[in-house]
Amino acid sequence: MKRLYFLLLSLVLCVAAVAQSCYSGTRQRGITLYNQKKYQMAIKAFTAAKSCPDKPKANDLDSWIKKCRDKVGGARGDDPASGRPQAQGNNNGSNSNSGSSRSTVTPQTSQQRNQSSSSSTSYSSSGTAKVEAHAVAHNQSTSDGDGMRINAHVSTSGMKDRKIRVVAYFYDSNGTRLSDRNGKFALGGQVAGWAEFTPKSDSSTDVVEIKVPYSELHLTESGKQKIKFQLVVLDKSREPNKRLFTYSMNTTTVNP
């Protein structure tokens, strides 16, 4: 009985740690940028933190945004204090002027199946991108029934007006690639979901949303089980696409 109790307690703590990674990580990035006197970038980070699923109702994001705006002499351009994107991004690459956007994945076509899933980290010589934090939500409504949603907070530098694709590659619990069966949610024959956006400034933080139906994971077993996914950031303005960043492998539990 004690063993079962400790197992359940460990599971709860692990879930809580994952849920906190989005808000706490993005907020801390904003504080770091503020202390570095990079106030405009800090505003974007605090604004992005408002989109985190694990954001507490009682938070100090508006206070931090006001501090930043006071430092730069008041608001200019967009209204980051609103906490809402001015427009939502899509797979055509549009995003909000405030630097915070959401893009939702669309089905993959056969012409698009051209990406690999190498685990190495690499950077562009003329611009950089990085996944600062992520959050996972399950049993979300998707284009094909219930599925999972991944919110990735992506910071970019020197990538203004260049199309960026964020890909989530999926693996089984052993780290073996999940093979696609119908070409809908896939890249290079591997199960994957993605979203695209275009930074509107040289330094930007964007919130990217990827949704994948459980039915498109093509799992070989039914019932509750663990899977893994890895986030990769690509520069779509180049041919072949340049890999900008590879996030560490993450584990989540699904029950399709």
Number of helices: 3
The best one-word shape is globular
Task: Specify the biggest β-sheet.
Answer: 6 strands, antiparallel
The percent range for helix content is 10-25%
Topology as a string of helices (H) and strands (E): HHHEEEEEEEEE
Poorly predicted spans: 74-124
| SS class | alpha+beta
Note the beta-strand portion.
Answer: 25-35%
Q: Compute the gyration radius: what is it?
A: 19 Å
Distance between the termini: 28 Å
Overall average residue pLDDT = 77
Find the count of extended strands (DSSP E, 2+ residues): 9
Which secondary structure elements does this structure contain, and how are they paired or packed?
Layout: H1 2-35, H2 39-49, H3 61-71, E1 128-142, E2 145-157, E3 164-172, E4 186-187, E5 190-197, E6 203-213, E7 225-235, E8 242-246, E9 250-254
Antiparallel strand pairs: 1-2, 2-6, 3-5, 3-7, 4-5, 7-8, 7-9
Helix pairs in contact: 1-2, 2-3
Report on the structure:
With 256 residues, the chain is of the alpha+beta class. Helix 1 packs antiparallel against helix 2 and helix 2 (39-49) runs antiparallel to helix 3 (61-71). The strands form two sheets. Strands 3, 4, 5, 7, 8 and 9 form a six-stranded antiparallel β-sheet that branches. The protein has a three-stranded antiparallel β-sheet with strand order 1-2-6. It has helices at residues 2-35, 39-49, 61-71, and strands spanning 128-142, 145-157, 164-172, 186-187, 190-197, 203-213, 225-235, 242-246, 250-254. The protein is built from three helices and nine strands, in the order αααβββββββββ. It is 22% helix and 31% strand.
